[in-house]
Amino acid sequence: MTISEYVLVRLNELNVNHLFGIPGDYDLPFFDEMIDKKTGVKHINSRNELNATYAADGYAKLNGFGAAAVTFGVGSLSTTNALAGAYADNTPIVVICGAPNRNTSKTLGRKQLHHLIDQDLDTSLKVMSNFTVGSIRLENSETAAEEIDQLLLKSYFQKKPVYLEIPYDLQKAEVAAPDKPLDLNKNISNPQMLSEAVEAIKKEIEKAKSISSLVGPVLDRNQQILNADKIIRHLNACVGTVFTGKISHFEDHPNSVGLYQGKVSEEYTYKMIEGADLVITFGNPYTEFDSGVFTDDIGTNQASIHIQNDHVIINDEFYMGVYLKDILPILAEEVQSLAPKSLSIDPTQRKFSFELKDQFTPTDNAITIDRLFVQFANFMESGDTLYGDTGGYINLSQAEFKKDISIMGCGNWGSLGAGFGMSVGGSFAASERKTGKVVSITGDGAFLMSAQDLSTLIEHKQDITLIILDNSGYGAERQIYPGKERSYNDFLPWNYEKLAPALGGVEGVTCHSYVANTEKDIDKIFTEVIENKGVNVVRIMIDPWDSASFNVRFSEALRH
User: What's this model's pTM, rounded to 2 decimal places?
Assistant: First the structure.
């Protein structure tokens, strides 16, 4: 098979059925192969390279792996912000770039090649090395297959992005077809370190009288939620979720104490997590947003175990080369011989800023953030998929949701526009799963950054509800300096409810558009969109200075 076909076959083994990207003169053979060969990977023509990479990220967060394809220079460098976000938020994706022919470097001379910065063919490779775990250009067909396999597996196991350049003249060069699939289940941990870490963890558990736990995004990326749950249930540990990995499975858990963000947390959540003798974190990078802008005291007055993607830290002692995917199945069995701890969860204490029980009868009053997200939490059902973009995600992170809702957002990278871009890819992943509804919630400022791909959703007849919170500007930034009127936080709003028809949708058939001003409007719209096929665009009018009560605490912490 050709090298392009080989890459696509391997991607399909990684559960990639849709690839997002923009064709260009240097990558056309690759796209030809994707169309002509039956590899199981379908091309989705994004509206720009940044959005294509966001979409690959959002697809991977739900499906396990993602891919985008672009052309050289102008395409590859356009992917960088989304690639950096995938790196920061532990998402395995590959960006495939068509590059000039291999003999180009020998024939340049004084020629100024298009898409080339001066005479440096390695610009993209140099840039990508800063936020990938592997950036390579294939040089010959003899080693191409092995290099592709190693690169993709590195991304898959390390949960980080990679970058693959394929010169034009190699994209249809032939290699041997793979004789066996990629081994995605192999144990990659250091055996001695793994054994020592398991024993050390058991000793810490035995010493503790009470245990708290936090579950984060890397746990979800490794599909280890059930093993973590088995450990938490047997040990009778309380469990909190975090901003970058809001796993609804644990928010519906009998041991749940809510969303933890350091001192930004609800008081009860903070007390339960930091008041235990021992805290165990499962796949939690120590990020600014998860720690409430580093207002936490995790491990200061308690013992601590941090199980990261590729290492374990026990009271500041590192066990390198121990992978979460390998140690959790072992721990899930080993802890069964240990005595459970005492735990009492007080059902009267508040664990979330917006709780399901706060649902109310809607009125003719204008919508506020505090009231909206209570109703929104009740709108979401088990099996649904939810993506949030900066302001929208910051608010939804504080809401209590029903179990088994897949929740993703812009994460600690916090790039405006990422959440909606991710939801485009996520809608395709969700359609493969054939589960519940897909919802994307974003602020108007964030939506402006990646809005073009609303047309991608319409073109491919995706079923999705897009909620745009219209407060005529950057609401989150207004709260960092409350009371100060600044022109840089304001912009002229679009007529968002008219965008879908303008971008090719047919109102009432492939798209449905709404504007909500009151609580009753929201109630009516939430009822209607459940029955609609296609793209629902819901514009919710919010006072420019309205903010959730919890966000005041969070914004204060963000002031530099």
Answer: 0.95
